[in-house]
Amino acid sequence: RLANTEKDRNGHFYNRKSDFRVEYSILEELEHSMTVSRKTEKAKIMQQLSKIQNNVKRLQQQLKDVKPTPEFVDKLKEIMEEVENAINAFKEEQRQIYEQLLKEEETAINELSVFERKVELWALGSSTTEKVLKLPSARVSVDKTLQNRLPEEVVEFERFLQQTGGQQGGWDDYDHQNFLKVWTKHQGRLSYMDEALEYLCGRTKEDIEQHDKWYQEFLILSERKKESIKKWKEKQQQETEGNLKEKEKSEKMLKEERLQHEEAQKQKAEERKRQQAAIEAWKKQKAIPFAMEQASQLKLEEEKEKKQEKEHLRQCHMKLLLERYTLQKKEKEQLEKLEKEKREEAEKEEQKRIAAEEITKFQEH
């Protein structure tokens, strides 16, 4: 049905031979610009959602490979905060856009209501109802797209106003206010009719009875609307409180999980410290016998070196003594040889002297 309606609209409005072509070319340009704007907005939203989705996937990927380190916890916390900030920013931006659209929608509804009533007045040719359009209270219309969002009682009340001439039932402000004055004074009892006829010149008894019937229905529907809006607000409040509680519960659970995770990391760190201390103690216990053995071995090697050095000194001393003895023996032998040579030479000299004396004696005889 929507497609057929758009087809008929395009056939009449955008036909080059149409008498309204010039006027509706403005609508054609506006529609094009709005289409481009919607596509741009859609691309922007898809980009934001894609970014949020990528961050969530990155967070899920990190959670698949949990590492018990403070750096990992900080990184995980940073990713979670980034995801939460992105979601909150996206929701806040969409909320502002939604509120702006609601304001524009309300303005459009009011404007459409005015044009709708003007068309009706043109068809009816009523000069009395023509005055109603000038009053803000008559600007009421029920947008079809709102019917799915608003409570049924609100839609029924708005439809009633639209079909019966707005907040004053099709009467002008002067007559309606006089009617309310008299009706309120008599609290809606039939005794008000005579006085009402005096105040409402130009209105017949049938007009006043019809307006009275309309006003009573107006009060009933208005009360239903107020009650419905009250319930709707209470429901919204409950949903908001429920969402807040759910959010607080989720945040509490997340905080507890984070604290549990941090406590587990702390316990693991303490356990690693205890294990490291035990390993160090075991190493020290193992190192003591080894050190003692090394010290004993070192002591033995020192004693061995001392013995070797002592033996070396003894050998050097013996060698020195031997060399000294050899040298003394050699010197003694040389001295004895020298003395022997001197003695032999002295003997030879003595023999020469004796021989000379003998020769001398022989010659004298």
> Major sheet, described briefly?
none
Number of distinct helices:
8
What oligomeric state is this? single chain
Strand proportion: under 5%
Helix content: over 70%
The N- and C-terminal alpha carbons lie at a distance of 196 Å
Which structural category fits the helices and strands?
A: mainly alpha
- Compressed to H and E, one letter per element, the order equals HHHHHHHH
Question: What distinguishing features does this structure have?
Answer:
single chain, 365 residues, mainly alpha, 8 helices
Explain what this protein looks like in three dimensions.
- It is built from eight helices and no strands.
- The protein has 365 residues and is mainly alpha-helical.
- Among the domains are: 1-118; 152-248.
- Helix 2 packs antiparallel against helix 3 and helix 5 crosses helix 8 (205-364).
- The longest helix has 160 residues, at 205-364.
- It is rod-shaped and about 225 Å long.
- The termini are far apart.
- 7% of the residues are buried.
- Residues 234-274, 337-365 are annotated as: Disordered.
- This is CC112 protein.
- Keywords: Coiled coil.
- Residues 42-118 form a coiled coil.
